[in-house]
Design brief:
The protein is of the alpha/beta class. It has 14 helices and 13 strands. The chain is elongated, with a radius of gyration of 24 Å. The model has no long low-confidence stretch (mean pLDDT 95). Bound molecules: ligand SAJ. Ligand SAJ binds next to α9.
Length: 421
């Protein structure tokens, strides 16, 4: 009889691993979530969570209390293993696979015939083969699919996560899923596991194409955001309102320009395109330039703030930065251009700096000890000379130019409207 993978270990309990473990547990799988951080493990075992994701706290509490989800710092025997650990890049944009390697080594001794291993971490092309070869070295007693195809003892597949932070629980169920097995038997095995919760289509391909597909999706978005960011610079030079321009251009039936912003943040879109560039540096010219355009956008915002400070005749102007997170209505400050810009404004001593970030209770470590205050929106508005809108949080949506007529506004998100509608 085909294995139905009743016991699943999820290695890495971050923004992807924890929701995946929780959804599997909610479908009646016995799930062990593994994380090297003891605090994370203790938090989850007490029925709470260490990240912010709408609806996840309630669901974790339920599956922990019903005994379907347990967290541990060490993996043990299982029917299936899902690896969802970080894959950052090193200083020179070279992918850092050390967390994946550590995860593979941690499960190797527990493998038995019939097991399924899935790599979900965003990874450079060839990573699944690398995992399979590493396991072959660590467990010469087992037969792996890259050697023997249908007769393999262990099945291995790459199945990238594609969920949007803030909407993870919905997208985990509803999104289509790319499944790239080392062999077609591996793909079939992975689909059997994912069908426990995926309502979208499971689309089968080979591991290398699946790896590239994930990188391509995020590079596509990065290139499109870079186009919008470049347009915003061109419009500044030509004294054109970029938001008005994009609104007009998007009336064309085949044009859909994304939104400019202060830069691209988070741990996905600002990272993954580099994996493509690293794998084919000569060919990946546009993808590289898009990364450079998006990475340089914060500097243009900082220059604008400097010019604004120079233009007002006040020794210590009040500069209010609205938003710190990497995008709207989340608390995630990782790789956030808003944090980078705020820090630069403080470090350049451009004025008295106030920050409004409704989604956090304290400033991040990178701003701690600096001359900056975290304040409510009303307080910031009552003092501000230069308003720098960095994130389009829902709390800021009502702001109008009318209310702020005597202030200088640097609106990187096109949020401040002319008047109330
Ligand atoms: N951004 C803009 N303008 C836009 C859209 C986004 O400046 O028009 C900025 C955001 O403010 C943010 C950054 O881009 O700083 C990334 O935000 P995002 O919402 O585009 O994407 P992420 O990083 O939250 O999630 C992405 C998603 N990938 C795609 O949409 C192709 C998600 O589906 C992936 O699962 C996720 O990366 C991931 O984990 O790889």
């Amino acid at each position: 009889m085909k294995n139905t993978y009743n016991k699943v270990s999820v290695i890495g309990l971050g923004y992807i691993g924890l929701p995946t473990a929780t959804v599997l547990a909610s479908k009646g799988k016995y799930v062990v979530g593994v994380d090297i951080n003891q605090d994370v493990v203790d938090t989850i075992n007490s029925g709470r969570i260490h990240i912010v994701e709408p609806g996840l706290d309630v669901m974790v509490n339920k599956v922990v209390r019903s005994g379907f989800l347990k967290a541990s710092t060490k993996p043990g025997p299982s029917d299936a293993f899902i690896i969802a650990v970080p894959t950052p890049f090193r200083g020179n944009h070279e992918p850092d696979m050390s967390y994946v390697d550590a995860a593979v080594k941690s499960i190797a001794s527990h493998l038995v015939i019939g097991n399924l291993i899935i790599l979900e971490s965003t990874s450079p092309v060839g990573s699944t083969e690398h995992v399979a070869n590493l396991l072959g070295q660590l467990r010469p007693d087992l037969v792996f699919p890259q050697r023997s195809g249908v007769d393999a003892d262990i099945q291995i597949a790459y199945c990238p996560e594609r969920v949007l932070p803030g909407n993870v629980l919905f997208e985990l169920l509803k999104n289509d899923r790319i499944v790239g097995g080392v062999t077609s038997e591996c793909s079939q095995a992975a689909v059997r596991l994912y069908k426990a919760f995926v309502e979208g289509e499971c689309v089968i391909t080979d591991a290398r194409t699946a790896e590239m597909s994930k990188l391509t999706e995020n590079a596509f978005r990065d290139v499109n955001i870079a186009f919008a960011n470049e347009l915003s610079l061109i419009c500044d030079e030509n004294r054109i309102d970029v938001w008005e321009l994009i609104r007009l251009a998007n009336h064309h039936p085949r044009v859909n320009i994304l939104k400019p912003g202060p830069g691209v943040g988070g741990h996905c879109i600002a990272v993954d395109p580099w994996f493509i560039v690293h794998s084919a540096p000569e060919q990946a010219r546009m993808i590289r330039v898009a990364r450079e355009v998006n990475d340089s956008k914060p500097y243009h915002v900082i220059e604008k703030v400097k010019r604004a400070v120079g233009s007002i005749n006040k020794p210590d102007p009040v500069i209010a930065c609205l938003g710190l997170s990497f995008k709207a209505d989340i608390d995630d400050l990782r790789e956030s251009p808003a944090v980078r810009i705020t820090k630069a404004i403080i470090d350049h001593n451009l004025g008295k700096v106030l920050v409004v970030e409704p989604n956090v209770e304290k400033l991040p470590d990178s701003l701690n000890g600096k001359a900056v205050e975290l304040v409510e929106l009303d307080e910031a508005l009552s003092q501000v000379d230069i308003l720098v809108v960095l994130v389009d949080h829902k709390e800021f949506l009502g702001l109008t130019k009318m209310d702020l007529s005597d202030k200088i506004i640097i609106d990187t998100r096109g949020l401040i409207t002319l008047s109330r509608h």
